[in-house]
Amino acid sequence: MSTSTLQAQPTDLRSAFRRAAASTWVVTGARAPHLDPVGFTAISVVSVSLTPPLVSFNIAKTSSSLPVLARTRRAALHLLGDDQEHLATRFAADRARRFADDSSWGWADGLPEVHGTALRLVSTVVDLVDAGDSHLAIARVDRATDGETAYPLIHHAGRFAPLAQIGA
């Protein structure tokens, strides 16, 4: 057997996870209540514990939102609705355009609130765990608010789509 077949091949997780479907979220924070909003699209939000109520999400070490979330320890997680692909794309792109002056967001609890979502979780970041090129944020959910839509936006095969269109 050749040496090259015995060596582990690097795994391309991006390609591997294209097969997995995930809910689409926008995580927001602010440098101070009602001041300088930050946010990003996340497809890594998962439930960790019911008691206490904990969730986790990944945040890249290069994210412009990381210093704010690390300092303030507050975040709002918004499960995007099936008609909010434009927001998923916007919060995954140029940070200067994420908080456009439009009716898609406002302020609530001192944090940016994305309007029209399926769910909003106001949370306290209790830990940031070093995880390669990211940090794993563990956050205690302080309040959950049902949103205006029952159907979430899903990320699958590198694209965002309403739940009904996945697999179509």
Overview of this protein structure:
The chain is mainly β and 168 residues long. The protein has one domain (21-158): Electron Transport, Fmn-binding Protein, Chain A (Pnp Oxidase, Chain A), CATH 2.30.110. The chain is 13% helix and 46% strand. The protein has helices spanning 3-6, 13-16, 66-72, 85-91; strands spanning 22-23, 25-32, 35-42, 46-49, 54-60, 74-79, 105-108, 111-114, 119-131, 134-146, 153-156, 159-162.
Short summary of the structure?
This protein is mostly beta strands and 168 residues long. The chain has helices at 3-6, 13-16, 66-72, 85-91; strands spanning 22-23, 25-32, 35-42, 46-49, 54-60, 74-79, 105-108, 111-114, 119-131, 134-146, 153-156, 159-162. It has a seven-stranded antiparallel β-sheet.
Please write out the topology.
Layout: H1 3-6, H2 13-16, E1 22-23, E2 25-32, E3 35-42, E4 46-49, E5 54-60, H3 66-72, E6 74-79, H4 85-91, E7 105-108, E8 111-114, E9 119-131, E10 134-146, E11 153-156, E12 159-162
Antiparallel strand pairs: 1-11, 2-3, 2-6, 4-5, 5-10, 6-9, 7-8, 9-10, 11-12
